[in-house]
Fold this protein.
Amino acid sequence: MEVTSDFHLTLYLCIIYLMSIKLEEYTLPEHISYSAFSTYLTCGYQYYLGRLLAKQEEPSVWSVGGSAFHLACEEYDKRTL
């Protein structure tokens, strides 16, 4: 798929529009990071909860297990090195 300059102009105008939207007395910042904009495009409600209301996601069991594994490896390295 070839991306045209019309696409870039449309995307730019969308970004400008999104920056001016007010949500429950919250004005989007002048600068919005790519990850924030990507989150907004993927799921506006996720953006609203995570970026505007600053709600934290519950960690999944896999992230807890992964964190424990990395902590155990770090402790092992500290004691053996």
In short: The mean pLDDT is 77. The first helix runs from residue 5 to 20.
